[in-house]
Amino acid sequence: MTVELAPRPANEERRAQAVVKTGMLEHDQGDLFQIYCDLAQDITGFDTATFSLFDADHQCHIAAAGRETEGKSLRNVHNVCSYVLLNTEPLLAADLSESEQFKDFPNIRNGGAKKGYAGFPVINKDNYALGSLCMVHDTPKAMGADKVELVKKITANMAHQLDMQTEQRELTSQKMLKALDIFAENNPDCAFADFKHFIRLCCDFDIDMEDSVRLKASGLAEATPSGKAGLSSQGRQLQFEMGLQTKVMNKIKITGDQANIMLDDMLSQIGGL
């Protein structure tokens, strides 16, 4: 038997698009939000605290305290956390088995346990409930008004972090598009792959010497004393004209594999235009 879907917010299409724009669904960045789950668990005394984002069809678990994250679960009518998205205020139930709204849900009625529940929407600056911070206790448990206010502050910080993620991706992509135009205008004989290698040099990433051949021919790269490819003085001038000078690039708070993933993601989007 097919289970119907949970109710959706009135702005569901735009809300789901905003979730995708955070970039959190493509790449595992749960570590950025783990501290919020730990803090919520410590403050409230609930057994578990879970942060989830909701795309069009699924609840996507991002980080958790007191339990393992579980990947995705369907946003069907019996998914309690889906109802958190429908209101700006938290969804509180000292005992789910006594809740008029949820007591007849099969997973609650047949679970045989009385559980306390507190779900807080994570609402971004555009008033979209992108996700939820939900706490569960294995026995009935109410949350006092003072704790509710503290968790609201936690979710406000989580929403701000998500907004920053989105803005950083959008601004960096715009910068890359502008840089691509300038690079192509100045180096018509170079291919898109050369632009990608040039950007990697701007980020102080290593590239293979064979990948720097055309950049060297264009005067943009040269061999360094260590035998690796590096930007020439002409290359550094172009880097400045493209708005990708080191000081600006260093403002992007990503390192290592995460930096490579984000760079490859941006370049793949540009390449598809």
Structure report:
With 273 residues, the protein is of the alpha+beta class. It folds into two domains: 12-165, 2-Layer Sandwich (Beta-Lactamase), CATH 3.30.450.40; 187-271, no CATH class. It contains nine helices and eight strands. It has helices spanning 12-21, 31-44, 106-109, 145-186, 192-202, 213-217, 233-241, 246-249, 256-271, and strands at 48-54, 58-65, 72-74, 91-93, 116-123, 129-137, 221-223, 229-231. The strands form two sheets. It has a six-stranded antiparallel β-sheet. Strands 7-8 form a two-stranded antiparallel sheet. Strand 1 (48-54) and strand 2 (58-65) form a beta hairpin. Helix 2 runs antiparallel to helix 4. The protein starts with 11 loop residues before the first helix and ends with a helix. Residues 247-256 and 269-273 have low confidence and may be disordered.
What attributes characterize this protein structure?
273 residues, alpha+beta, Beta-Lactamase, 2 domains, six-stranded antiparallel β-sheet, two-stranded antiparallel sheet, elongated
Could you give the topology of this structure?
Elements: H1 12-21, H2 31-44, E1 48-54, E2 58-65, E3 72-74, E4 91-93, H3 106-109, E5 116-123, E6 129-137, H4 145-186, H5 192-202, H6 213-217, E7 221-223, E8 229-231, H7 233-241, H8 246-249, H9 256-271
Antiparallel strand pairs: 1-2, 1-6, 2-3, 4-5, 5-6, 7-8
